[in-house]
Amino acid sequence: MIYPGKTLLDTNQKRVQAHGGGIFYEKGVYYFYGENKEYTTGKNKIWTYGVKYYSSENLVDWKDEGFLIEPILSKKSYLHPTHCLDRPHIVKNKRNGKYVCYLKFSNPKTEAFFMILEADEFKGPYRIVKNEFRPFGLLVGDFDIYIDKKNDAYLYFSNRKDGIIACKLSEDYLDVVGSYKWYYKNLNFPFSREGVAVFEFQNTLFRITSGRTGYIPNQSRIAKLDSPLGELTDLGDLCVGDDTNTTFHSQIASVFVDPKTGIYIALSDRWIPKLVFTPKTSERMIRAAASTNNRKYKANLLELASLGFRPFNCKKVNTSVADYVWLPIQFDSERPYLRWLDKWSIESTRPK
């Protein structure tokens, strides 16, 4: 069984550390990979201690396979644990057989950029092929990569504080080509978008995004695109029955489409398990945050003061105890949605 929000332990009964990443399926084996927050206590300068990965044959029992991308303990390297490595995404380029990994970095001195790595096998070793890569000279944030049926790849990334950028990648997936499309431009904090996840269902392309509130959970929204770089139609809240507007107290990382079962799984992180909102406290938090740059939102002094105690600044947060919220995406005639489940199994969710 899968238990959303409960601590996920590996086969050695240790906490699984693979945040902000995804699941890769190959030759009958699932690989869950992501940020290793094992040492990120909020009391030190460690942000991400390498990229770890785990293997499974059933999406439930996960074996620790070690580091997919090891930390480098020289401060001259961006792979040093004190640099802000986030959201590893790995795709396979079927044209040349290479595995391409994008890492997002947010560094105070060099601003926000991608590091691109490449390997001949999923398990690596990965070698850096491009560093400090800013597509079209733009600052980058949370992102996802979508590959269509022709093996053309598209990159979707938040432009730090102002919207989502969509663009096509080169045939080797190591650069951008053509021009770019801008979505959600001129939305202010906390409504500007990040937490990007893109997937296709029955020839329709969908995109999930979260609001921009750091590790504080907020409402994820679902939208559809008429083409990879086409027009967007907002479909509203991704979740049904979530009266706290917090995506069930989590932030989307990616969507995994299981080739064995056909199940779509929304993979989300519950960054701060102890931070729980009610409908009222969530409303107050959003109103107070929005009032800092939009006069139509009014917040009292107590609400404004409470912002100082919220983890908008992620550097002092203990994410070593972060959990996961995995839920099957359900579909009606118009849109995908998430509904809370205390537990669920792959077999019971398999499409009939």
Q: How is the secondary structure organized here?
A:
Elements: E1 19-26, E2 29-35, E3 51-56, E4 63-69, E5 85-93, E6 98-107, E7 111-119, E8 127-133, E9 143-147, E10 153-158, E11 164-169, E12 176-183, E13 193-201, E14 204-211, E15 221-225, E16 232-237, E17 239-240, E18 251-257, E19 264-270, H1 279-291, H2 301-306, E20 323-328, E21 330-331, E22 336-339, H3 346-349
Parallel strand pairs: 17-22
Antiparallel strand pairs: 1-2, 2-3, 3-4, 5-6, 6-7, 7-8, 9-10, 10-11, 11-12, 13-14, 14-15, 15-16, 18-19, 19-20, 21-22
3D structure, described in words:
The protein is mainly beta. It has three helices and 22 strands. A four-stranded antiparallel sheet has the order 1-2-3-4, with no helix packed on it. The mean pLDDT is 92.
Query: Roughly what percent helix?
Result: under 10%
Provide mean pLDDT, rounded: 92
How does the overall form come out from the CA principal axes? globular
Proportion of strand residues = 35-45%
Which series of helices and strands comes N to C?
A: EEEEEEEEEEEEEEEEEEEHHEEEH
Total strand count, please? 22
Largest beta sheet: strand ordering: 1-2-3-4
Oligomer: single chain
Main sheet summary = 4 strands, antiparallel
Query: What value does the Rg take, in angstroms?
Result: 19 Å
Task: Give the helix/strand class.
Answer: mainly beta
Number of helices: 3
Contiguous low-pLDDT stretches (5 residues minimum) are: none
Distance between the termini: 19 Å
